[in-house]
Each structure stands twice: as C-alpha cells, then as structure tokens.
Amino acid sequence: MIPRQVYRTAIKQHRVLGFAGRRLQSNKASPKELALQSHLPKIENPDTPDRDINPKRKLPKPAYESENFKVPEWKRAFGELFINVFRIDMDNVRAGTMGGSKYYYMCKDQGLQFKDEPLSETAIFWYQTLGLPRTFGQWFQITGLHVWLLFVRMRAMPFKVGKNYQQKLVDKFFKDIELRLSEEMNILSGQIRESYMKDFHSQLLGITFSYDEALASNSDSVLAAALWRNVFNGDKNIDNVKLEALVRYVRMQLYILNKISDRAFGFGDFEFVAPNETIEPLTPQEEEKLREATRQKYEPQNGKILPSNRSSLSLDE
C-alpha cells in the first residue's frame, strides 16, 4: 500500500506530531512502550458497569471478506464492461466496499476478543497493556474510537463522497452489533436487542461529540479527558502514563490520516499505525514522493485506467 511504503521510512522513529503539525513528544517510546512504563498496580473500579457479555462463538467472515478470495477473470471482465456501459459512479460503489467493509473490519479488529481465545497483537495493547476489561461494551468503545478517526478523514473528502463513506461505515457497524447480539450473545429477544442498539447509538453520538470537541480545541488535555471518559470509563484509578500513551496513539493516527490523499484513502490505501510503532513527520521531499507514488498508481502514464479504477477524488488532497 502506498502509505506503508512511503511511511516506512518514518515509522519506528522518535517524534510524534498531532493533527495541527505540532510537536508533541521527543522521546522514543511508542504508545505501547510508554504504557508499559506505568508502575501503578491495577485497581478494580467498583463503579465500572458490568457489561461483559462475552461471545460464545465468533461469526465467520463472508467469503468476499477473506484475503484468499479471488474473483474469476470472466466475472472481472464482465464487471468492467458493465461499469463502462452504464457509467457507474465507482466512488459511490467504493463507499460500500471500503467504508462499509474494509475500513469497518479494520476498526472492528483492533480490540476484537473472544472468550478462551488468545488475543491479537493490537488487542493485547488494549486489554493487557492498558488493562481494560474484556467486555463487549469495551470493544464497542475501542471500535468507536477508530470509527471516529476515520470520520475525521472522511469529512475532509468532497461532501457527497465523504458522507456516503461515513454512512456505509456506520451502517455496517450497527448491522454487525445487532448480528453479534443475536448470534454470538444469544440475545433472542428483539425488544432487548433494540434496547441495546439504542444505547449503543447514543454512546456513538457521545463519542463523536467528545472527540470532535478535542479535535476542535487542539488541546491534549481535552483529548485526554475525552479518552478517559469513554475508553477508560472515567476510572479514577487510571495511571496517567497509560492515558498519555493513548493520546499519543490517537495523534499518530490523525497525522497519518492528514497526509494521505483523498484518492489513496478512498481506494483503501490506509492502515492504522500499530501501538508498538512510532512516527515522525515526513520531510517535504518524502511528501512529494508520496504524492508521486499515488499519481503513478492511480493515473499511469500510459493513460489506461480500468473503468473500476475511475475516480473523481483528488490525488493531492
């Protein structure tokens, strides 16, 4: 992917910038390394709501979500012809395939956990390094944070396109929640599921508002307060080192999202920076290299662009 190829020179370095281009830290610790410096013992918070409805089994991903899934060549050729003849708006189509599929699963997988199963590397950061409870409600908060991060970038896209990406992302989020409540949590009552869904919808609105406030204020303290209230559930015993680590983690994601073009982001060329990595700002030369790599990938010099790769999204913004 374009961002990873170019940012690889900046990853595992020592400076972290926020979304305003302001230098935040000067040490070499990644969010995970910083959180591990916490020396306070874990103290259970009796005020934390018990929302632990651990899944009994995990749902398999649809075949088209599998990394090994390949479309037969004849179907691919027919699809290109169909797109060309009917002049289908591929930016609208990609809102579903990227915003409502790839990007949602990226958000979902960050803190995904199943009972009696080993944790992924990213889930280890959330549940072991930061010491968050392994509950469904906590998974929702982690996923909601990453959904908001993508919201920030989607809002910077042309209004109609960005709104479509956001809508597809939210639709998939809540469809997945309802499915998990029914199939994994064995909540068969439609009334109870509806009650949960309303609660999660209210929480997502609150998450978005609080993080937007932090974004608008350009203040680390406001961002830390929002993360403390939502991700850490207002735990008064939280170690500030862990809170600082999460602030650093969010700043890294926002910096990378700020540097990727609309075209590359719209085509799914974005990955979250892992908690065990750090970043430093790109030089002007590296930024130009990123733009050039984007142009070469999406607008080749021979001018032959498949109908499915057509887009009105900017290569530079």
From TrEMBL:
One of its GO terms (cellular component) is mitochondrial ribosome. GO terms for molecular function: mRNA binding; ribosome binding. Signal peptide: none annotated. It comes from the Eukaryota. Residues 128-272 form the Ubiquinol-cytochrome c chaperone domain. One of its GO terms (biological process) is protein stabilization. Residues 308-317 have a biased composition (Polar residues). Residues 28-60, 278-317 are annotated as: Disordered. Residues 41-55, 286-298 have a biased composition (Basic and acidic residues). InterPro entries: Ubiq_cyt_c_chap, Ubiqinol_cyt_c_chaperone_CPB3. Belongs to the CBP3 family. This is Protein CBP3, mitochondrial. It comes from Ogataea parapolymorpha (strain ATCC 26012 / BCRC 20466 / JCM 22074 / NRRL Y-7560 / DL-1).
